[in-house]
């Protein structure tokens, strides 16, 4: 069983190797995970997993650093371009993206996105999305959350910022089956909002060099499409199973 996890960015490390733990993180450990003095927990920092032993000094909770473990490196750098959705679906998409190893997320203000307009770019909304990404790292043990870019319109995507391999989940006929893709180390994957990208947006992706791919015969919700597509890129790149066997299933 994995250890309870917390983020350490808002905690303070003393020169003696003790961590004065953030009150919100302690609340989750003690009230939700039922941790007690002497329990071991896993602290997450960019690039590191830190094993701590919990102690309590009066009303202040501390963690004694027992071990620091480098996070394993991945051979895939995955940029996800995702059409913004209604709140619950979008929050699920963000959490799924963390779990499947996405490195960067570019939210897209699509013609069929809900809600619409400038509300999608407010600092308050961005802060909330950042919190969701951080919380998701604690569930899956990712040392770092994906980098979150400010939202853009599809027309505003700068081709200079894109990797050489780009794919888009598009519902039109003629798309290449995702199972035939053998990706390199740097990949972009685009998923539209509910109802797919508009015709104008699809044309823009083609202009940018995105290869249309199909995720199968069924219509998937956007958070599910992100999970399916990004998992395929991650698993085939990492070699966690033989792609030839997977294609025969």
Structure summary:
The chain has 249 residues and is an alpha/beta fold. Helices cover 29% and strands 28% of the residues.
Describe it.
31% of the residues are buried. The protein has 249 residues and is of the alpha/beta class. It is elongated and about 65 Å long. It contains 6 helices and 14 strands. The chain starts with a strand and ends with a helix.
Helical content band: 25-40%
Structural class: alpha/beta
Q: How large is the share of residues in beta strands?
A: 25-35%
Oligomeric state of the chains in view:
single chain
State Rg: 20 Å
Number of helices: 6
Low-confidence stretches: 240-249
List the helices and strands and how they pair.
Elements: E1 5-7, E2 12-13, E3 18-20, H1 23-32, E4 40-45, E5 48-57, E6 60-70, E7 77-83, H2 87-99, E8 104-109, H3 123-140, E9 147-148, E10 152-153, E11 165-169, E12 176-177, E13 186-191, H4 199-207, E14 211-214, H5 222-238, H6 243-247
Parallel strand pairs: 1-4, 7-8, 7-13, 8-9, 8-10, 11-13, 11-14, 12-14
Antiparallel strand pairs: 2-3, 3-6, 4-5, 5-6
Helix pairs in contact: 2-3, 2-5
What are the salient characteristics of this protein?
8-stranded parallel β-sheet, alpha/beta, 6-stranded mixed β-sheet, elongated, 6 helices, disordered C terminus, 249 residues
């Amino acid at each position: 069983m994995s250890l309870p996890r917390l983020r350490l960015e808002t905690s303070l490390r003393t020169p003696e190797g003790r961590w004065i733990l953030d009150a919100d993180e302690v609340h989750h450990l003690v009230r939700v995970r039922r941790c007690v003095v002497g329990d071991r927990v896993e602290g997450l920092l960019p690039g590191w997993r830190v094993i701590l032993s919990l102690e309590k000094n009066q009303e202040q909770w501390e963690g004694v650093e027992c071990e620091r473990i480098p996070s394993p490196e991945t051979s895939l750098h995955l940029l996800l371009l995702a059409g913004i959705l209604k709140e619950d679906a979008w929050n699920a998409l963000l959490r799924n993206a963390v779990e499947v190893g996405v490195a960067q997320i570019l939210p897209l203000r699509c013609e069929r996105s809900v809600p619409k307009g400038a509300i999608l770019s407010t600092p308050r909304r961005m802060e909330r999305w950042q919190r969701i990404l951080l919380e998701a790292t604690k569930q899956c043990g990712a040392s770092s959350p994906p980098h979150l870019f400010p939202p853009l319109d599809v027309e505003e995507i700068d081709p200079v910022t894109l990797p050489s391999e780009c794919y888009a989940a598009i519902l039109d006929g003629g798309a290449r089956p995702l199972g035939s893709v053998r990706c390199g180390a740097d990949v972009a994957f685009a998923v539209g909002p509910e109802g797919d990208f508009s015709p104008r947006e699809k044309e823009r992706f083609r202009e940018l060099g995105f290869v249309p791919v199909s995720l199968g015969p069924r219509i998937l919700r956007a958070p599910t499409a992100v999970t399916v597509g990004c998992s395929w890129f991650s698993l085939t790149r990492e070699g966690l199973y033989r792609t030839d066997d997977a294609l025969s299933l």
